Amino acid sequence: MIVLKFGGTSLADAARLRAAAAIVVAQPAPRAVVVSAAGGVTNLLLEAAYAAASPPPPSTQGTSSGVSPVPGGGASIAAKIRDRHLAIAAGIPDAAERSGALAELDQLHAALDDALAAVAAAGELSKRDLDRIVATGEKASSVLLAATLRASGTPAAHLFADRVIATDDRFGAARPDRTRTRVQAEALVRPLLQSGLTVVLTGFIGGAPDGSTTTLGRGGSDYSATLLGAALDAEEVQIWTDVPGVLSADPRRVDDARVVPHVSYDEAQELAHFGAKVLHPRTIRPAVARGIPVRILSTFAPEEPGTLVTRESGGEGVKAVTALPDLLLLAIDVPELEDLAAASAAVFGALHAERIEIVAASQSSSRRRMTVLVDAAAHGGCAHVRPLLGTAMDAADVEAEVGCTEPVALVAAVGQAAAAQPAALARLLDVLGRANVPVLSASQQTSNVALTAAVPAAHAERAVRALHDALIRPQPATARGRRPRRTELLAETIRVG
Ligand code: ASP
Ligand code: MG
């Protein structure tokens, strides 16, 4: 069986939905389809939830009867969401399917209104409420695509994944339980597939042990697709999106960025980690466990080969160059060698306590200086992180000096074979040196699949361009693949919402 996943841009309106349905039916059955919310809907749902929780300004508060019919500003946003869904439903090319979908959407929107009203009444928004509210987008998409498929003559059913993907109860960033998910997928999805239906499932959402709806984190529908693919032993997971595959660089930075035809699981994970926006970072893991090939394809050019992700990828060189912006580089100098272990424990402990993500860490050979590259743009930058570490050092009774540089970008050249060559880092530094890019730190691990250099953010773009020019060979003309036009590549966005 095959799992196909469609992102928000590919489900944004009725015409895109019909295009998605055509792609689905071109694949051999049995097939399961995983859908995101229509583009922009998740953001609207979040807005509605926050608006419901914050008290309305006094002028609009209440009516003469003292009862407010308006849950904060949430109701008007909820109306916008309903209009989006109804507009999509209006394009379903079959009257019975159209009215069936409208009836189901009515229920979803009524439940949304109730949830918003409950939040407004409580005056606060729990993470549990928020997940229940944002799940509406994916649920509506699943109803709409299943109806569109049936309208085009393909037997299909939708299923909400809060009954299929089992998670813990970390609302907003729930972690899946793969064993329970497998059991639930066998019980609920398999029989539908066996009866000849195409099953359309909601991405992004799961179910906590008590049955509450959870979400897997923004952009999590890709992850849902591989989780379901693994649970159902799929032959392939196809991620249908709005870019033609994994690109060798951000096309807004590099003119001749191109599609990379084949990457390994490790390379794909590294690319996601180092800032390529095409896949949610956790997506690949469930596929690795079962060796399921993942293909990244464009709904705007369905005949293109896209990018295939498998265990082995072949190819010798660097495949892609990325930049992760908005980082800060911490340099911790520890004069007394015997303080080093306590100092590292304090640094990592303090960063962990604030949920600040560590992107890279290293230690000088004298072992007196640690450098830690962290993603702290959303955590107040150096102004916040430096005193934080100062306090942690005091608490640990360690003498250390904490330096902090920002903004820093981490540029990465990704390619398994290239990164394993002993001279590769020298080559990277040489290219950056010739391009007059100052390097703050650089690393290569032979077992790893990327070479990285931290550079001042202002130099990141030049660094990426120089590395792409020097390390990535001009694209050979392939029999199948037409080179994507630049305008198509420019469609790349962070696909959330
Ligand atoms: N709709 C969710 C989001 O916007 C999940 C997804 O699109 O993958 O984050
Ligand atoms: Mg996405």
Description:
The protein is an alpha/beta fold. It is built from 15 helices and 16 strands. The radius of gyration is 25 Å and the shape is globular. β9 and β10 form a beta hairpin. The strands form 3 sheets. An 8-stranded mixed β-sheet has the order 3-4-2-1-7-9-10-8, with helices on both faces. Strands 12-13-11-14-16-15 form a 6-stranded antiparallel β-sheet. The two termini are 28 Å apart. The protein binds aspartic acid (ASP) and magnesium ion. Magnesium ion binds next to α7.
Compact summary:
With 497 residues, the protein is of the alpha/beta class. The protein has helices spanning 14-25, 41-53, 74-89, 95-122, 127-151, 178-194, 221-231, 265-273, 284-290, 340-353, 381-395, 416-419, 424-434, 460-471, 486-489; strands at 2-6, 31-35, 156-159, 198-202, 205-207, 213-215, 236-241, 262-264, 294-298, 307-310, 320-333, 357-363, 369-375, 401-414, 441-444, 450-456. The chain has two domains: 2-58 and 68-242, 3-Layer(aba) Sandwich (Carbamate kinase); 320-471, VC0802-like.
Which labels suit this protein?
497 residues, Carbamate kinase, binds aspartic acid, binds magnesium ion, 6-stranded antiparallel beta sheet, disordered C terminus, VC0802-like, 15 helices
Number of separate strands: 16
Give me the CATH superfamily of the largest domain. Answer: Acetylglutamate kinase-like
Q: Gap between N and C termini, in Å?
A: 28 Å
Largest sheet: 8 strands, mixed
**Average pLDDT value?**
90
Number of H- or I-type helical stretches = 15
From the 3D structure, determine the CATH topology of the largest domain: Carbamate kinase
